[in-house]
Structures are given as structure tokens and as C-alpha cells.
Design brief:
Layout: H1 11-17, H2 25-38, E1 43-49, E2 55-60, H3 67-73, H4 96-102, E3 105-114, E4 117-124, H5 125-131, E5 137-139, H6 148-153, E6 158-166, H7 175-196, H8 198-202, E7 211-214, E8 217-218, E9 233-242, E10 245-253, H9 262-271, H10 274-277, E11 279-284, E12 287-293, E13 307-313, H11 334-363, E14 370-374, E15 378-382, H12 387-394, H13 398-413, H14 417-426, H15 439-452, H16 460-469, H17 480-488
Parallel strand pairs: 1-7, 11-13
Antiparallel strand pairs: 1-2, 2-6, 3-4, 3-6, 4-5, 7-8, 9-10, 10-13, 11-12, 14-15
Length: 489
């Protein structure tokens, strides 16, 4: 007696369910690019057309596929997750091309050329729903309406992936609003791909360097470790072996924002705010998968915001990382977490030093206008021994001194700590210590300061120290020597 029964899943139900795995436009496009890299592509064009109906094309100059290879590539779960893949193959489940495409569109067409021979096939979601069978349409390439400039790109070899009937992106009927929203989506996509594939764009991956273009504009790499800056520090390197596969951990501290060039600062401010960007950056065969996460080892704090750990592992140990279909989530195996624990102390300590270096320096002088007190709590109080304060007090009557003391208490108790913290975390270079004034105005301020301090009765060096510690002339500190000499002349 046969105790088994063949139960075929509904093609319509399965395919519709797989649309909601959780892809975004960014992660879906990245999954398609993985296939292009696996096909040895060095140039990948992404084209978003909105002339009549939205259409998205991914065009690569990879090896291409013949008809049989194309049909296999369009088969769901064509490869087992445990199957050993080639070095450049970034796939995992054999689902990426299909699930990523259907997460955004109802129709997936693939046109490929190998040895000068074109082949084309199409998954049509509505056709599958109607028949409730896994029926792939075989298409005559000549029937496809594709611009000649795109066909020329694969005239010898290469592949074009086409998304039609894109229904997961809602465009306004207002052309201006629709164009504005499209611009937002493409900017976000550009930034995502520039980060995820930065090693391939930089030519630092084990495979060939690639050129990525979005609507004919090249995508720049965004290196999250700011390695082009000489002040980025490599804190430590650790190698561990997981099932005979090497996992490399490299710890960095980014340069303080004051050590970044204007261009670097603008890029980091726009692309990766320091506070939320801290953490581990996990690469699978040079492709960034997960970033900005300490995996619950430590919380994200202002003091550790310059800390970054690069973790590289080989796809041979995918099963140890519990990678999801989208390749956008992963959990480090125990051995990697233990190594991360060891290295995280060093890197966060270095990051704290960078964050507090300037504050600590100011606290070592007795001439700071502010004092820092720590005990059960931390507080900041105006330094009543500051020369300028002392001189002002000496000119006041008893009642005026009481009024001044009340004013100082109000200022100290209303210090906007939360606003300062937020501004320094998000836009530190926009936080200025004084108003923008020209050199002549600053010199006039210096003369008023000198008269108030009765500098003529002070030692020149002592007066200069008082002027420097006041921070009133920080924008023209190089002119201070000249002004002091002229005042005492």
C-alpha cells in the first residue's frame, strides 16, 4: 500500500506570497547585481524609464547565457544553498533573480546573448495566476521592444533583465510630484549600491573591478572607513577560523570631523551620520551585507561613534551566519562574536579618546571659562576664577555682584545640553563657537577686551594667555600676536 501522496504547491499562491519576503527597491536591485558579478560583468547599467509606463532595466556585459542556461537561471531554487559555487558567485538560494524582481514588478523578462546568439524568456505573474502552473514564456528576441542602444551593449555577450508592470512603487499622477519622487528613489538607490558594492567599484574585491551606472551617471563608491584620510586609525586585526574558513576582523576609528576634508565631511554627513553608522560592517566575499550593528555587545553612544569593525567571511560558511534570502541580514556565529568582544574594547576606547580629546585638553588649563565637575553626576559651571570674570566682579557694587551671580546661575542651569549633544552628533561642523565676523571687527573686539581687562597693567604674556583662553578670537588666532604687540607698543 502506498502511504505517500504527491502534493504540488499552487504556483499562483507561492509566487504571490514570495512577493512579500521584504525586499525594498534597493535590496532587490542589489540582488540582481549579484548575478551580474557572478557572470563576470565589469560594466553594469541600471536604467529607469518612465516615458509611458515605468520600466527598469539591468544591463551587464557578463558572459551571457544560451537558451538552456537561461531557462535554468529562471527556474526557482535552481541551486541548493549547500552547493559549492564559484568564487565570484554571490548567490545563495537560487531565488534572488526571481524573488527580487517579483517584489517590485509583475513581469520579469530576461534577454541574454552568448556567442552572438540571443535568447529570451519571461515570467508573467498574471499568466501564472491564470494557469496556476509554473509556465515560463519563451520569447522570440525580435518581438521585444528594446532600444537599439541597449541591444548593442550585449551584441557579443551580456544580459538584460527587464522589470515591467512595476506595481510596488506608487507614482503620483502629478508629473512634477512623480518626477520628484523618482529622483528621491534613485538617489537612495545610488547611495545604497555605492556602499554595498564599494569594494567592487574601488577595485579592492577579489573579482574584477566593476563600473556601475544609474541612468547613465556613474555610481561612486562610499567607503565607510574613510580610508583615504591619513587620520583614520587601524586599531587591530584578528583572524579566526570557522570550519576551516578564515574570518578577518579589522578595527578602525574614523578621524575626528575636524580632521576630515570638507569633501569627506559633506559625504559622511549626507551618507552616514557618525552616531548611527558605528558598529560592525559584515562582508560576504567583499559584498557588504549588514552594517552599523554591534549585535547587542555594546550600545551605540556618542563616545563610540567613531568606531567601526570590518568583518569579512567566505560564503563557504553561509550556514553559520543564518543569511536571509535578501542577503541583508546575518547573525555572526559564536566564534565571531567572541572575537568581536575582544576587539570592541580597544576600538571603543580609541573612539572615546577622539571624542573627548579636545574637551580633556581644555580641562587641563586653569584659564577655561567653564569648569567640569564630576562625582555622582557631571555638571558644567562657569569658572568664577576666570580673569575676565574676576575683573568684572571687581568693578561691581555688592548689589550688582548679586545680580551677576543670579544671571550666572540662570545661564548654568539652562545650558542646552540635549540640543548641543544632538547638533554635535549630526552636524558637528555646523556648530560654531562664535558669530562670523570679519578681521577688522574682531580686532575692534580685541581692543575693547584689552581695555576692559586693563591690559596696560598686566604682563603681556599673561594678557595674551587670557585672550587666547577666552575663545573670543579663535577665528583670527594667527593675528593675536600682532594685535598684542601693537597694543603694547
Amino acid at each position: 500500500m502506498d502511504n505517500t501522496r504527491l502534493l504540488m504547491p499552487s504556483a499562483a499562491s507561492i509566487l504571490q506570497s514570495m512577493r512579500d519576503i521584504g525586499y525594498t527597491l534597493d535590496t532587490a536591485v542589489a540582488d540582481i547585481i549579484d548575478n551580474s558579478i557572478a557572470a563576470s560583468a565589469t560594466h553594469i547599467d541600471l536604467i529607469f524609464n518612465t516615458h509611458s509606463a515605468p520600466q527598469f532595466l539591468i544591463i551587464d556585459n557578463g558572459l551571457g547565457m544560451n537558451a538552456d542556461e537561461l531557462y535554468q537561471a529562471l527556474r526557482f531554487a535552481t541551486k541548493s544553498p549547500t552547493e559549492i559555487r564559484q568564487e565570484r558567485d554571490l548567490g545563495r538560494f537560487g531565488l534572488g533573480l526571481k524573488t527580487a524582481s517579483f517584489s517590485q514588478a509583475r513581469k520579469l523578462t530576461v534577454l541574454s546573448c552568448k556567442n552572438g546568439q540571443l535568447s529570451a524568456a519571461q515570467w508573467d505573474l498574471d499568466y501564472v495566476i491564470q494557469s496556476d502552473q509554473w509556465l515560463l514564456k519563451v520569447i522570440d528576441p525580435s518581438e521585444l521592444e528594446i532600444d537599439e542602444i541597449y541591444l548593442d551593449k550585449i551584441s557579443k555577450h551580456g544580459t538584460i533583465v527587464i522589470w515591467d508592470e512595476i506595481d510596488r512603487i506608487e507614482f503620483s499622477k502629478n508629473p512634477t510630484e512623480a518626477q520628484k519622487y523618482l529622483g528621491f528613489l534613485l538617489t537612495k538607490l545610488r547611495e545604497h549600491l555605492g556602499l554595498v558594492f564599494h569594494k567592487f567599484i574601488e577595485g579592492k574585491a577579489k573579482t574584477a573591478k566593476i563600473k556601475l551606472c544609474l541612468n547613465h551617471h556613474e555610481i561612486d563608491a562610499f567607503n565607510p572607513f574613510c580610508l583615504s584620510n591619513q587620520f583614520t586609525q587601524l586599531i587591530g586585526v584578528e583572524k579566526i577560523i570557522v570550519e576551516e574558513s578564515e574570518v578577518l576582523l579589522q578595527a578602525y576609528t574614523l578621524p575626528h570631523f575636524s580632521k576630515m576634508t570638507s569633501a569627506e565631511y559633506e559625504v559622511f554627513k549626507k551618507r552616514s551620520d557618525l552616531l548611527n553608522g558605528q558598529g560592525a560592517y559584515v562582508y560576504r566575499n567583499d559584498r557588504l551585507m549588514v552594517w552599523g550593528d554591534w549585535f547587542r555587545l555594546i550600545p551605540k553612544t556618542e563616545n563610540s561613534k567613531y568606531a567601526r569593525v570590518e568583518i569579512n567571511f567566505d560564503k563557504k560558511i553561509d550556514h553559520k551566519w543564518t543569511i536571509d534570502i535578501k542577503k541583508s541580514k546575518a547573525s555572526p556565529p559564536y566564534a565571531v562574536l567572541e572575537a568581536l568582544k575582544r576587539i570592541v574594547g580597544k576600538i571603543t576606547t580609541a573612539s572615546v579618546r577622539i571624542s573627548t580629546k579636545r574637551v580633556s585638553k581644555s580641562l587641563t588649563t586653569n584659564e577655561s571659562p567653564w569648569n567640569r565637575f564630576s562625582g555622582e553626576g557631571i555638571s558644567y559651571r562657569i569658572n568664577t576664577n576666570f580673569p575676565l570674570y574676576q575683573h568684572l566682579v571687581s568693578t561691581l557694587s555688592d548689589d550688582q555682584r548679586l545680580h551677576l551671580q543670579s544671571l550666572m546661575e540662570v545661564i548654568q542651569s539652562s545650558l542646552p545640553v540635549q540640543s548641543i549633544y544632538s547638533d554635535m552628533a549630526v552636524n558637528p561642523k555646523q556648530v560654531v563657537m562664535s558669530d562670523e565676523i570679519d578681521q577688522q571687527q574682531t580686532k575692534e573686539k580685541f581692543i575693547r577686551f584689552a581695555k576692559f581687562m586693563q591690559a596696560e597693567n598686566m604682563n603681556k604674556a599673561v594678557f595674551k594667555d587670557a585672550a587666547m583662553s577666552s575663545s573670543l578670537f579663535s577665528q583670527y588666532i594667527n593675528n593675536l600676536d600682532q594685535w598684542v604687540e601693537e597694543y603694547y607698543a
